Amino acid sequence: MKRSAWLPLVAACGVSVVTACAGGAPAQLPTLPPPAEIATAPAEPEPSQPVDATTALIAKADEHFQNGQREFALGHLDRAKQEFDQAVDVLLEAPGGARANPRLGDYFDRLVDRVNALELTALAQGDGFTEQKSEPATIDDLLAVSTFPLPAADENTREAVENDLKLHDLPITLHPKVLSYVALFQGKLHDWFQESLQRGMRYLPMIQNVFRADGLPLDLAYVPIVESAFKPNALSRASAKGVWQFVRSTAVENGLRYDWYVDERADPEKATVAAAKYLAGLRDMFDGDWPLALASYNGGPGRVERAIRRAKTDDFWSLASSSRYLPRETREYVPMILAAVIVARNPTHYGFTVDPVDPLQYDKVTLPVPVDLRKVAEWTGASVEEIQSLNPELRRWTTPLKDDDYQIKVPVGTAAQLTEKIASAPPHELLALSEYIVRRGDTLTTIARRLKVSWQDVADANNLTKRSIIRPGQRLVVPRAPAALLAARTSRASARAASASSAGGTRLVYRVRRGDTLSGIARVFETTVSAIKNWNNLKSDRITAGDRLTIYRSTSSDPQ
Length: 560
What we know:
Elements: H1 8-13, H2 53-73, H3 77-92, H4 102-125, E1 135-136, H5 138-145, H6 155-164, H7 176-186, H8 190-200, H9 204-213, H10 223-227, E2 234-235, H11 248-253, H12 268-285, H13 290-299, H14 301-311, H15 316-320, H16 328-345, E3 363-367, H17 373-380, H18 384-390, E4 406-410, H19 415-424, H20 427-430, E5 433-437, H21 444-451, H22 455-461, E6 475-479, H23 484-500, E7 507-511, H24 518-524, H25 529-536, E8 548-552
Helix pairs in contact: 2-3, 2-4, 3-4, 3-23, 4-23, 7-16, 9-12, 12-13, 13-14, 13-16, 17-18, 21-22
């Protein structure tokens, strides 16, 4: 989750969200020494100015709010909620209440609005349905570059490549197109190539181990430079995804899981095992001819086999010499891969400096139940971004439902504390999912309409189709908003704010939020649906986000 500027004052001052917005100390004018003939008494220290009560209260509340912002930015909603609650309570519990004077009341209103804005931000950034964002795959841009004239390799480049051939376990032909791509990587694409190779350093030991065990050339470990620049969430315009850029059908055929919760194309380790299986199959299909196997990896084996039959040759370079047999992308792909292998296998020889890095390390925890990723982050002391980067295969903010052996990766040394927290936590604290019990006459469409969600999301989350038969009593999983833990308490803070300004403190004004139901609101305020409907002259149970509901209750039973 990217940190954003929550406070207008912070944005105006141009400082970070964890820095108080101060204009800075005024410049001090130089003090001239007194004339020598005039004796001066030692200056007495100026008495410190007392801080008025309102300023002290605002400062204390703002400290809690800033702490809450930091926790919120890390995805720690429970801790953020606690800090925001304390910020509100500092003012509500002050002598005279949160509106003891206009200045305090104005700050209180802004505080509640800012907390509510953060709640809405959480809903917008990850509402339980929204899939994790992908980033563009490298392959699309590289193939676009190949439409322009390529640089010609000079004699020094050719000689360097020729001397390096003994390093490689792939057959590499000194074709002019291969040498041109080497020159391109050394020139205009130098910085991009170095960044890609540096990113890959954390994955290369794992990839090489997998390929070595399967008897594959280690040169193939550098294919992801061209495919994805080693970005696990890279997504191409053809909907290929991951470090190895599998399309969904090929991924599933080679043992990768794809469903509403998980897309293992984005798991570098599992995708590498699948890539090894797929590449070994292509090698065998084309009798060990790696240029043809690589062409098939890009364009599909059926297309390459048809090209061979039409051209009556199985030599890739002959097939690639004409536009009649293979598409341009595939004709460019193979020399591009070979050039990347040449440079990556001996980077210093071609003007690149790559720093060694430790391979990716983590602990694994087997989860007995589905768990909200924000809980995993909070209990391991990590940020949500770190948990997501360790588990890029998770498409949403939860681990899979109905999967008794799912293993989540967590920072090294945190597995024991996570296991202990999960064992002791109430079930409702673990899930980013809620449950809906099917009623008589329900369909996926009517359920989705009632819950204000897409029927497709409900269907996918439960492995159903629109035509699936659902029966009364059947339990359906419905992802809930990741801000739900935060929303309950911030909504109460808003209601308490309205209560504080009402005569006698018995009339509450509650603003309906996305996902609210009358029954849920009634539970929060310890009243009944019927009472809420009577107070607001409601003819049905239907409410819409943004509606304002009047709720009456005694001060003594104010929800805590």
